[in-house]
Structures are given as structure tokens and as C-alpha cells.
Write a structure and sequence with these properties.
With 222 residues, the protein is of the alpha+beta class. It has six helices and six strands.
Amino acid sequence: MNARIQAWLDQEEARLASVIRRHGWAIEYIGGGFCSAPGCDGGDDEGPPFAYTVGLFGLGHPELLVFGVDPGTAHGLLNTLGDRIRNDDEVLIPGQLLTFSDWTHRVIPEEVPNPGEIVFTANRFYQRPDEVSVPVFQLSYDDFEGRFPWEEGYSAPEMQPRPGTFRACATYPRDLPRAARAWASRPSSRARRAVSSTSASGWSIASQVEALRKVSTESPPE
């Protein structure tokens, strides 16, 4: 690894550790073709965006993963559930139905069988090889008609890959190691500033509207 990439990677690791130390966990949002690594052009923007926590494993809980929503909605969902886990000692269980007072969708956690192919940043933070990855729950949400991705007629199945069918990948410089890939595909500093304007425990109305457009091609019920 060249010195420039190593210096950049060390800086990003320090930032992540600081966020987790202050807040208990951090959130990695990947998608939109962003790339902040030296010499990286962002690769092809293929597949749905996704976000996951880094730090819940340190609280004795699987990390959380969500697909197909914008940064504000991802942060609202993951932070709300993170608060429940930390403050209320809630332990999420695969198959459990979760509801929210300020979001219309229902969520069911599902166990991810191949977390080492997705949560690169979490495994790097905890110094775990991909083959012995931290555990991860995927948060699957319903559409406007109340259908979940595994049910017939779900409006946008491409936005929520079924657990075990998705593998994170992108195009990076040849000398950028896999350990750095999750860092490379993180949003730009401008995008991170936009995300940080959303309250850690609050929900952005504009983000909700955009996310709902992504998971349903039909108008919401009146």
C-alpha cells in the first residue's frame, strides 16, 4: 500500500473511532458513486444504496443493515433502533415486527448469512477477518400496501436484495486493498455534512418522502 493511501486510511479510521467513542456507533452509507479515496473515481453506481452501523457489536448486538433508502432515512432508522438497543436494552430478533411512531413502514430484521461480503468497515474496526465477520441483521421494510420483499406483488424488489444474494463491490485503484474499500465508497465530505444535519434520533421529512418514492411506484393511500 502506498504512503498516500495509508495516511488517508489512518485518518478515516481515527474519524470512525472518534464518532463511535462519542455516540456509541457510526453509520456507513454507501451508494451514489461517491468515493473519497486517493485515485478512486467511484466506480460504477450499480445496485441499491445501503447503510449499516459500526459499533453495535461492541454493545453485544449484531450490526444493522438497510437497503434502498436515502441517507437521512437510513440515519433516522438506524439511530432510532440503536437508541432502543442502547437505552432500552432491547435485543432485536429475526422475524420480529418493528413499528415506529414517526415512520409509516414496518420493519422485520433478518439474519444476513454473508456479512463478511458487505460490512467491510465494521470488520476492519473490530479487526475481524471477513470469514469471521461481525453478525448483521438486515432491516427489511414493507411497501405502501403492507407487502414485504418476500411477498408476491412487492413494489420494488430490486431495492431490497434478499439476505445472502447481495455482495458489496465496486471499482477501485489496483493498489487499494480490500480493507479500504468500504472507506472508499463512503459519501464525500459534502454528502456527510448534508447527512449530519439530520438529528441523530429524528427523521427528515424530505428524506422520508424520497425514500417512500423509492419503495413504491403507487400513490400512498389517503
